[in-house]
Design goal:
Beta-clip-like, four-stranded mixed β-sheet, binds zinc ion, alpha+beta, three-stranded antiparallel β-sheet
Length: 343
């Protein structure tokens, strides 16, 4: 599944730029060089929950989609998409989505729990992240032990942690993103690990302490509702990897083309993550349902690097200083592409 390799391209180490994708041979303009797999984790934002097909990501100009799976609250563009989703997700996955749907529903009825962004909020460093996740682990242990029914000897700290996480507000988007990744992990743990753990991981992926808190609470909340058979995949290792991978590997799921106005969610597509950036890319991409197609926009020679642009919409028209500033801020690198070097 990843890294990608075919007759046309392979992944190589690029001096000064980590890994990248190199053309194995001459490739003529408009040739498709990669079709990605479906995402290994994704989220469709809650505000679009009635408008985007949960299976093929179709969005029909804001219209509410009619075909619904009442137990999970998912909507679909057609009965065949609903069936496709049911087959793909499996009975166990569906049961987890159903439990999450009930949790969100219950929480919404009960009003918001304690939450909020404090004025002293900052980007948490590694030590703070480790500490906070250790706390979450104690809260999760509470549920895992009671639910697998092996022992009832629970520590006070664990009980407090668990209660705190459940009383706190919920974040349906983080919960949905984590659950989708957990379900993928559970289907094929080894392949998942190979695909996700080899991506470029961000050590400090949480933009604020609030964001970190929300991830940790979501993890404990998922442990509290997850079917017991899925608990082996609902682990801190998986949830932390999902956050670390999403920072620099997620592709936006937008309406229409690549630069569609509606930002409806995002997904991690491992094989597509090996393309480096250029401000004058030779590869374009388009989402086709829940996968991405990549093709070359010019004739490419053997040994050329294949690059996409990480810039969206108007960002492509920024001058070199603005472009480099933006790429450094969002992606953490100084762009040395041919266009930037020309100035
Ligand atoms: Zn559909
Ligand atoms: Zn550049």
């Amino acid at each position: 599944m990843s890294p990608p390799a075919s007759d046309l391209l392979s992944v190589k180490t690029i001096p000064g730029a980590g890994r990248g994708i190199i053309a194995n041979c001459e490739i003529s303009k408009d040739t498709t060089v990669l079709n990605s797999e479906p995402p290994v984790a994704h989220v469709l934002f809650r505000e679009y929950r009635k408008e985007v097909c949960a299976h093929c990501f179709l969005y029909d100009r804001g219209r509410t989609l009619r075909v619904k799976d009442h137990d999970t609250g998912k909507v679909f563009c057609s009965a065949s998409c609903r069936q496709g989703w049911v087959d793909y997700t499996g009975e166990q996955g569906r049961s987890a989505w159903r439990d999450l749907y009930h949790l969100i529903h219950m929480k919404n009825k009960g009003g918001k729990g304690s939450s909020g962004i404090s004025l002293t909020d900052h980007r948490p460093g590694i030590e703070e992240i480790d500490r906070r996740w250790e706390k979450a682990q104690r809260g999760a242990d509470e549920y895992v032990r009671t639910r697998s029914d092996t022992s009832n000897a629970l520590g006070d700290t664990g009980r407090k942690q668990a209660k705190g996480a459940l009383a706190s507000s919920i974040d349906p988007d983080i919960l949905g993103y984590l659950l989708s990744g957990i379900l993928h992990h559970d289907q094929q743990p080894d392949r998942w690990r190979e695909a996700v753990m080899t991506l470029a991981m961000h050590d400090e992926p949480y933009s604020t302490t609030h964001d970190l808190e929300a991830h940790c609470n979501s993890f404990v909340q998922l442990c509290s509702i997850m079917p017991v058979s899925l608990l082996r995949s609902c682990t801190i290792e998986v949830c932390r990897a999902l956050a670390a991978a999403s920072s620099h590997n997620a592709f936006g799921i937008r309406s229409g083309g690549e630069d569609g106005e509606e930002y409806m969610g995002y997904g991690v597509y491992p094989s597509a993550s090996y393309f480096n950036h250029s401000c004058h890319p030779n590869v374009a991409k388009q989402r086709v349902g829940n996968v991405w197609r990549f093709w070359v926009t010019e004739d490419v020679r053997q040994g050329d690097e294949l690059c996409i642009s990480y810039l969206g919409g108007d960002e492509k028209d920024l001058n070199v200083r603005q472009r480099r500033g933006h790429l450094q801020e969002v992606w953490g690198f100084v762009c040395e592409c041919a266009r930037c070097q020309r100035g």
